[in-house]
Amino acid sequence: MRSPNQCLRNGETPPRIPSHHHQQHFHSTVAVQKLRRFNTLILVFRFASFCFCLTSTIFMATNTRGSNYPNWRDFEAFRFVLAANAIVALYSLAEIGASVWEIFRGTTVLPEIVQVWFDFGHDQAFAYLLLAADAAGTSLARTLGVSETCMDSNAFCMQADISIALGYAGFVFLGLSSLLAGFRVVCFMVLGSRFHI
Amino acid sequence: MRSPNQCLRNGETPPRIPSHHHQQHFHSTVAVQKLRRFNTLILVFRFASFCFCLTSTIFMATNTRGSNYPNWRDFEAFRFVLAANAIVALYSLAEIGASVWEIFRGTTVLPEIVQVWFDFGHDQAFAYLLLAADAAGTSLARTLGVSETCMDSNAFCMQADISIALGYAGFVFLGLSSLLAGFRVVCFMVLGSRFHI
């Protein structure tokens, strides 16, 4: 695509802000505190997203009650919900690790430019994936709601609904993470460095 | 996709680089040409998005064949597909107007800062809306596909499928517009102005 360098930190012409001013700014205690608060906020969102998606996955995966009852595996959209939530849960777990690393080590796991774009790109893609899965699941759940399947086995439908609702909650927190990740991309492009402790 | 000059050519407030250097650079023919190419690309994406969503809306709205046949109004997800596509078609039309205005007048319709955030925010929100609607529609269409409804009236299901597929195409182009809009937001934040012909 394009490199952040194009906009701002195009190496040979950085003279917009004198670099000593730059460093001075970021080395101040206030800046470090703000950075830590920002990182912690991201961590909280990631953790919330992980919890919701993991719970959603578990709710869907355990939605079986023997061979006489409907099974989530029989419904394409429910399989999609489970898969999407599981993927986002795994991704969130990895990102939690990366965030913790960053908070304690002060550097990113991947090279900085790769990390900011990796986070933002994956947040966006997985947010779309999760929303699509949840919307598909909702549509199926509502169709089932008026069918015989739900008359016969109300618990099955209830559990599927809960799983989907948890998926939406995971989506909200993933979206919030995505916002912050986008903000970090902009910071990186503007200042040439996301973390400069 | 993008060129560095797009970022660079904006700006009556270019405090980082002495303004004479800036203007000299940015008022060059090459820069103007690149800006025009960028604007035209956005316009093309908006237009494609408009066409697909409008066609999708029409396909869904005309999916009725008398009282003995199924009707799209009876299905919640199909109503959602129609509404989302109609909204995005209207929005795209408005954005086409704004783009044309910009290409010919050289200024944005709204104040610049409002315009860049308006475009980006709405692109994102409507992309999520459209994807959710299409995913819900797909889920319903697949459920119907193995039900009696589609055995009795295959044309109804076929037309609904086409409408949903067109909606996905609209989503792709809306997503591309959103990427470019995001790029403009970054440019605006970096240089203080998006377009300055």
TrEMBL record, chains A, B:
<comment type="similarity">
    <text>Belongs to the Casparian strip membrane proteins (CASP) family.</text>
</comment>
<feature type="region of interest" description="Disordered">
    <location>
        <begin position="1"/>
        <end position="22"/>
    </location>
</feature>
<keyword id="KW-1133">Transmembrane helix</keyword>
<comment type="subunit">
    <text>Homodimer and heterodimers.</text>
</comment>
<protein>
    <recommendedName>
        <fullName>CASP-like protein</fullName>
    </recommendedName>
</protein>
<keyword id="KW-1003">Cell membrane</keyword>
<feature type="transmembrane region" description="Helical">
    <location>
        <begin position="43"/>
        <end position="62"/>
    </location>
</feature>
<feature type="transmembrane region" description="Helical">
    <location>
        <begin position="165"/>
        <end position="191"/>
    </location>
</feature>
<dbReference type="Pfam" id="PF04535">
    <property type="entry name" value="CASP_dom"/>
</dbReference>
<feature type="transmembrane region" description="Helical">
    <location>
        <begin position="82"/>
        <end position="104"/>
    </location>
</feature>
<feature type="domain" description="Casparian strip membrane protein">
    <location>
        <begin position="38"/>
        <end position="173"/>
    </location>
</feature>
<keyword id="KW-0472">Membrane</keyword>
<dbReference type="GO" id="GO:0005886">
    <property type="term" value="C:plasma membrane"/>
</dbReference>
<keyword id="KW-0812">Transmembrane</keyword>
<dbReference type="InterPro" id="IPR006702">
    <property type="entry name" value="CASP_dom"/>
</dbReference>
